[in-house]
Amino acid sequence: MTSKKRDFFEAQGYRNIGKRVLIALLVLVVVVVTFVGYYFYSSVKVCSDYQCFLDGLEGCDKVSFVRDDLKASWYYEIVGDGGVGCNVEVMLLSINEGSVENRVFEGKSMVCGFVWTGGYPEDDLFSCSGVLREEMQEKIIQDMHSYLLENIGEIKEEFRGV
Fold first, then answer.
1. Residue-wise pLDDT tens for the chain (162 aa)?
2. Strand 45-46 relative to strand 63-68, pairing
3. 160 belongs to a structural domain
4. I need a surface site. Which of 13, 46, 60, 151 has the fewest CB within 10 A?
């Protein structure tokens, strides 16, 4: 830069303009790289079938899958490696068949440590944690309690026979 231009910029308060532009460009590059990296790291592949989901389980890849059956609709998303298996977020989307009182579970989720040996993550509640698991477990206990109270006479007679 010529001395007249430099003197002009310095008079306007633009000392070390080259350094400032370089710093601004470096900050911009860091921000762009951070957003692009976050996007690719956090993006989830949507599977259209269960086999695609099982393939994702092999490497604990971030994939999701919606399973509709006669009883309920479930959403599964592999959220990471759980050590022994994958951590899978399980959400009950809707109840298609059964008691109306079970609709309180809709929209609730839990995270399950899942190693595929057949079946689905929600089949083993002991490997899960979260609101859905707690509420399902509470409902099971309440149903067992009600069953025992309704059938206490029969149960008592069976114990006498033992």
1. 577 777 777 777 666 767 777 888 888 888 888 777 666 666 788 888 888 988 888 888 899 999 988 888 999 999 888 777 889 999 999 988 877 778 888 999 999 888 877 788 888 888 889 999 999 889 889 988 888 888 877 777 777 766
2. parallel
3. no
4. 13
Tell me how many domains the chain contains.
2
What does the DSSP assignment read for 61-90?
--EEEEEE-SSEEEEEEEEEE-SSSEEEEE
- Reading the block at residue 11, the tokens are 């008079």
Closest CA to 53 of 112, 127, 62: 62
Contact 78, 90 (CB under 8 A): no
Q: Are 131 and 110 in contact (CB under 8 A)?
A: yes
* Domain shared by 27 and 64, yes or no: no
Residue the block writes with tokens 């001395």:
3
60 lies in the same domain as 32: no
Contact by Cβ (8 Å): 77, 88: yes
Distance between CA atoms of residues 8 and 119, nearest Å: 75
What the block records as the tokens of 41 is: 């790291």
pTM exceeding 0.70: no
- CB contact set of 133 (below 8 Å; sequence gap of 6+): 110, 125
